[in-house]
Amino acid sequence: MFRPLDDKGGKAVAIEIEGRSQIVPAASNLAAALLSAGFSPFRTTPAGAAPRQPYCMMGVCFDCLVEIDGLPNRQACLETVREGMHVRRQQGAAAIGEKGKAR
Amino acid sequence: MNEMVDLAIIGAGPAGMSAACAARACRLSVVLLDEQPSPGGQIYRGIAEARDDRLAAILGKDYAAGEEIYRRFVACGANYRPATTVWRIGPDGLSWISAGRSGELAARRVLVATGAMERPFPSKGWTLPGVMTAGAGQILLKASRLVADGAVFVGCGPLLYLVAHQYLNAGVTVRAILDTAPRENLLPASALLPGALRQPHYIVKGLRMIAALRRSGVRMHRNVRAVSFSGQDRLEAVHWRDRSGEYALECAEAFVHQGVIPNLNMTMSTGCRHAWDEQQLCWRPDLDALGRSSLQWLLVAGDGGGIGGARSAALSGAISALAAAHDLGRLDFTAFERESAPLIAARRRDMAVRPFLDRLYRPAQGFRIPEDEETVICRCEEVTCGDVARAVGEGCPGPNQLKSFTRAGMGPCQGRLCGHTVTETMALLSGRTPQEVGYYRIRTPIKPVTVGDIAGRIENAEQGAQHEQAAAD
Ligand code: FES
User: Fold this and answer.
1) Could you give the CA distance from residue B229 to residue B219 in angstroms, rounded to a whole number?
2) How many beta-carbon pairs under 8 angstroms link A with B?
3) What pTM does this model have?
4) What is the CATH topology of the domain spanning B369-437?
């Protein structure tokens, strides 16, 4: 499990992960914040419902897809946390190009 | 009216940032779009953020070198658009999305500087949560100050050793390093050593790092083969073989690495010519010495055009920007020659180490073409090596047809994590060269966009892109 290198203090914001409030460092990368909160898996695959977590952290693998504020297919590793952001695990398929709801 | 910009640059790593500086020095109007919230690319990720002495010491001098490029970039006068994803490029410019907004940018030249990604590590269990690339581990350290205790590092290549070294510097326990560099590489690589020694600092640095890892007492296994990962819902253990037997080690995180390859999808989507690089075992766009592709409007700089590392990337960015300025009639030939010649010479010198490094850390075949039928090749659609073999047996001729046979390459990553494995696997199974087998045809959009975004593009085009903000303001 990932942990902060040291306790730096600094500003924090509250986001909601699967309906539970979680305090995370302000302006942190969303995938990093979810990993250090122990969120696992980030999504399950459409084909075999296999659990996934970030693999590349740089936007190429798409294993970090989550639902943010109701929008599916968001790459958590490319998002920055915002106060009040709602994050949900993405279950199975949510086709590219579909807006607002999972298939 | 849709404003026209001279040069649109995609990617804010060393190549993109240097290109912006050089283009601005030639008075080109420049827009640089980047997916990340701040400049640096992956190599200098988080460079804009203040670092305390501790993190600076952990990351080392090479990372600090990014600061100079970054400072020049922010002062160069390019229009910089962070957190912006480009999902289409073409002769007329590009289409982007950013935080729910979308738009078009018209450009005379497009310079792709989208860098490298890590070579796929297709092995049993590599899709389990807890298995991630060494680069991912380093990004979490650089940009988010996160570390994982007791991780196992598996694979080979400078980045793998560097991240392990940074972990040890940070005082984080490393469970083991499983080095997969094949012993057979030593002999052919040593023949290339004299050339590499023209840039001795790379060799000295590498040797120092490896010596430091040895001294640290961290558990190390060499000539590791047949790596696999196991666990219920996440990684629980890594398994491997070497000459003396079979082993397993419990761990919650594994950082895997087999070198880097160009991040291809953007250049592939343009239809510009690509070639299989036998030295680096990867596809790369076919470029001239100035980074010009087979399409007049498209240039490529940095690792996205072939792996050369950060220094070469910065040089190639500047070279390509000068070429674009010259092609657009904004830099006369004498000035172009005068300014580009020293950069081209410096880049050639810097690249002298590559043949040696590429040969020394060439991943063994078993790490590129899975030996086990059940190994997942396409992570998105969970297509296995056996599925590919069956398709080839049924007469499937190439990667594009493989899509309809198996759905490989049809998931959200659009073949990024399976394309190279598919090319090499199909080549081996059908007795052809990778060049003959080819690669997936990559289509726009190259990033997930909503129907609304695409509709927006059509609307924009129809209205003469009225509401598109001033492109080069
Ligand atoms: S972790 Fe790979 S795309 Fe986000």
Assistant:
1) 18
2) 132
3) 0.94
4) Arc Repressor Mutant, subunit A (1.10.10)
